[in-house]
Amino acid sequence: MQTIDKINNDWILRFSTPLIIGGPCSAETQEQVLKTAYKLSKASIQIFRAGIWKPRTKPGSFEGIGEKGLKWLQKVKEETGMLVATEVANASHVKYALAYNLDVLWIGARSTVNPFTVQEIAESLKDTDKIILIKNPINLDLELWIGAIERLIAQGIKNIGVIHRGFSAYKNAPYRNVPNWEVALDFRKRFPNIPILCDPSHICGQRKGISKISQQALNCEYHGLMLETHCHPDKALSDAKQQITPEKLLELLKSIEVLNKNTKQKLELLRIQIDELDHHILSLFSDRFKLSSMIGKLKKNSHLPIIQHNRWNQIIDELKPYVKKLSISDDFSEILLNSIHKESVNIQNRAMV
Ligand code: PEP
Ligand code: MN
């Protein structure tokens, strides 16, 4: 039996890379599915995706067309020759997807997070030679992602890959799902044999940024991309804001370069991690300054002075050993902490009036 370290990745070699999976978030009507599929097949897309059962955050939203849509996917396969893919989230979905002979099944981020669900899906797929892709769990937990792969391998499933779709964030995030590239890159370092695709659509949550994330993923030597594509994106019943037209997908594919491993690429790898951290730092500053403003109001109501030297000296003293441990220079920490203090005093002053 194969192990996670020596996983058989022959399936990806059957495709030209980068492997592009395109298609709508959800199958909605036969006309929408076939129209989108025809355009994508002309753009040489190799795998067509469409969600049949949709895990929605709130009840009352469109939850997928169900079995009827599987017939449309069969038609796509017969008429265009593309392979077809959908998300499965329980044993019954698997039963239907296998009965309609879909080629690729993926486990969504909300399922990867639940070991019972993954186990149920894995058992219902026992010994399958279908391609099974596992999206990262919605939370930042690399071991949970790895655990899901192990559950599939334990059921004799051979053709496995993963999809990096970002991790959920609360407020202030420039993405719908923050890429946290370092997690996916750690994954790649540990399991270089497991094919990895990126899903820029669910990372961005809007059309803006999809091309940049796609390029970054290819710079990191991902094997491909999953991009949500709809013939009329604005009318989509799910994820309308992040879907692009087949024409835009083609434009995007023409504009991205597949770089060779060289200094430029290594630089890029470091830069995307720096960009991500800079966003995070700024959003932490914003949270910190909101607290300063609340303190300003409290001081005003209690007639306390803004500057309380003891409190600030105490903060600095407590931070000194921490700064040392983090190998941040004394000069830099002094400038940074003083600037924070100065801004905090300004904010409190404003809150006083
Ligand atoms: C999807 O691919 O439409 C989907 C629901 O994705 P995720 O599991 O990444 O949220
Ligand atoms: Mn979607």
Topology:
Layout: H1 10-13, E1 19-23, H2 30-42, E2 47-49, H3 67-80, E3 83-87, H4 91-99, E4 104-107, H5 109-112, H6 115-124, E5 131-135, H7 142-154, E6 160-164, E7 167-168, E8 177-178, H8 181-190, E9 196-198, H9 200-204, H10 210-219, E10 224-228, H11 246-255, H12 263-301, H13 309-325, H14 330-352
Helix pairs in contact: 2-3, 6-7, 12-14, 13-14
The structure holds phosphoenolpyruvate and manganese (II) ion.
Description:
- With 353 residues, the chain is α/β, with parallel strands linked by helices.
- 51% of the residues lie in helices and 11% in strands.
- The protein has helices spanning 10-13, 30-42, 67-80, 91-99, 109-112, 115-124, 142-154, 181-190, 200-204, 210-219, 246-255, 263-301, 309-325, 330-352; strands at residues 19-23, 47-49, 83-87, 104-107, 131-135, 160-164, 167-168, 177-178, 196-198, 224-228.
- The strands form 2 sheets. An 8-stranded parallel barrel has the order 1-2-3-4-5-6-9-10, surrounded by 5 helices. Strands 7-8 form a two-stranded antiparallel ribbon.
- β2, α3 and β3 form a beta-alpha-beta unit.
- α2 runs parallel beside α3 (67-80) and α6 runs parallel beside α7 (142-154).
- The radius of gyration is 24 Å and the shape is elongated.
- Phosphoenolpyruvate binds next to α5.
- Phosphoenolpyruvate is lined by residues 25, 51, 55, 87, 108-110, 135, 165, 199, 202.
